[in-house]
Design goal:
Elements: H1 2-26, E1 28-36, H2 43-56, E2 61-65, H3 75-83, E3 87-90, H4 103-117, E4 125-127, H5 137-149, E5 152-154, E6 159-160, H6 163-171, H7 178-206, E7 214-219, H8 222-237, E8 241-242, H9 245-249, H10 264-272
Parallel strand pairs: 1-2, 1-7, 1-8, 2-3, 4-5, 6-7
Helix pairs in contact: 2-8, 4-5, 6-7, 7-8
Length: 296
């Protein structure tokens, strides 16, 4: 009887723990890097450091380029980044804030960047809003519809590293003292990202989206050139595996999109269930909305 009791306890233990272990291995995250080619000086050297860290750890990533910031000596590095298998997307021409511009001005920012970045943009085409400013109402929808027309998908985030705060503190230290200060700053920064991750996972659980991937936002800056390996290791220690932005978005039940456009994730779900999505025509019937096609 005692032996049977022990066996029952072990069976119960495995029934409880195996699903938990499996769940841990299901956790996935995509890394996205804003403000390429680089924030600050020594752009090519430090962007190359970020790229090499990603390659050494076999981690996919997508970078978003501010077109205006490209200099003649940056093109080779951007091609190298793309040729290494990483994604490159549009981050407007001048890092424009949609909350401070009219829709028509902002669309011109997207268009100017698209024209300049054509040699290095990858497929699928992704767009990341600077300052994560998507605005609201008609202006928001005008921009979304233009992006859809140009075959751009919006790249959302679920984890904001707030790395600009930490990077500014690093840059405020005299260069001769930065190495020592970086060693002090690093654990606080990595721990902050992890706390942001815990909140994002709690958000997924609350909204019954436990299988949704996380999407981390960092910037191409001095801090991440030296700390990215530590960030990657922290996620690996907690059982995360790294996925592309494309694969991460496949786990999203919904994503921001033009009101005229059927959300691709929702459309796929409808098709699996043998249902047809009704055509959405709201924006076309609103006389107060200019025809976004006329702005191209």
């Amino acid at each position: 009887m005692k032996t049977n009791s022990i066996i029952q306890k072990w069976v119960l233990f495995f029934l409880i723990t195996i699903p938990l272990v499996s769940f841990a291995h299901l956790k996935s995250i995509a890394i996205t890097i804003d403000d390429l080619p680089f924030v600050g000086e020594y752009r090519n050297f430090h962007l190359n450091m970020i790229m090499e860290t990603l390659k050494e750890n076999e981690v996919p990533a997508t970078g978003f380029i501010i077109a205006k910031e490209i200099r003649n000596d940056n093109w080779e590095m951007l091609h190298k980044f793309r040729d290494a298998g990483f994604g490159l997307g549009n981050h407007t021409y001048s890092h424009a804030n949609l909350n401070k511009l009219e829709a028509k001005q902002y669309i011109q920012e997207i268009k100017s960047a698209d024209t300049l970045l054509t040699p290095v943009l990858t497929e699928p085409k992704y767009f990341r809003y600077p300052y994560l400013a998507v605005s609201s109402g008609i202006k928001k929808d005008k921009v979304l519809c233009y992006l859809a027309k140009k075959n751009y998908q919006v790249a959302p985030i679920t984890i904001d590293s707030k790395d600009f705060v930490f990077n500014q503190r690093l840059l405020s230290v005299p260069e001769v003292d930065r190495r020592a200060y970086l060693n002090e700053l690093k654990p606080f920064y990595v721990d902050f990202i992890w706390q942001q991750t815990i909140k994002a996972e709690e958000h997924n659980q609350y909204h019954h989206n436990a299988d949704q991937s996380q999407i981390l936002l960092i910037h191409a800056n001095l801090l991440n050139a030296y700390v990215l390996a530590d960030i990657i290791n922290r996620y690996k220690e907690h059982g995360y595996h790294f996925v592309s932005l494309e694969d991460a978005l496949k786990t999203f039940k919904d994503n921001i999109h033009c009101s005229k456009q059927v959300n691709p994730q929702h459309k796929e779900s409808m098709a699996r269930n043998g249902r047809v999505e009704p055509e959405v025509t709201g924006i076309e019937s609103d006389p107060g909305i200019e025809g976004y096609a006329d702005w191209d």
